[in-house]
Amino acid sequence: MKLYQNPVSTTCRPIMMFIADEELEVEQQIVDIMAGEQYGEAFSKLNPNNCVPVLEEGDFRLLESSAILKYLAEKSGSAAYPADPQARARVNSTMDWFNTSFYRTFGYGLVYPQVLDTCKLPDAAAQKLQVSEGKAQAQRFLAVLNDHILGHDGPWLCGETMTIADYFASGMISVGELIGCTYAAYPNIRAWYDRIQARPNWQSANAGVYEWAKFTQGPEYSAV
Description:
54% helix; 2 domains; Glutaredoxin; Glutathione S-transferase Yfyf (Class Pi), Chain A, domain 2; alpha+beta; 8 helices
């Protein structure tokens, strides 16, 4: 198997950490997305969407981070993707929520419009309004995460055991590092994030986001 990835990518880093934690034999090839390698002819044949990650196993390819995590977990028999139908459904539901609700508002509504030129609006007033609305929506879903998804007795998103939902979510929460998010107003999120950051392979798998954060330091951001 081969994983095409970039160590800065929000959607690649959870897979890289899972591979390290489970000690899976997966070849990893870096795609230089900063230089536009993803738009080249060779990579476009792998993924016409021109983005990482891509998992390749012979003629079989997967293009989505969530699907790749599920495939690797199921193929390896990992306990991080429980076999019990209801437990697995809970993991699937949590991952879907992060993908369709949380990341849309937190990543693309609050964080990226402040650090990525491609997500900024040219008009200053419109840009300010975009970030303000993005923050309001992000806070709404952060409250759901803090009070309901993590508002139970278990230390992880789906209960007592860490699952691939935690891996998947960690990449999205970690982009808050780019604008200095502390999550101080969300104690359950802060505690969960501290737990996952304490994992032995966190630093090696997520070094890219900390390197990126060095380049975004300086401006006063609207953070949470």
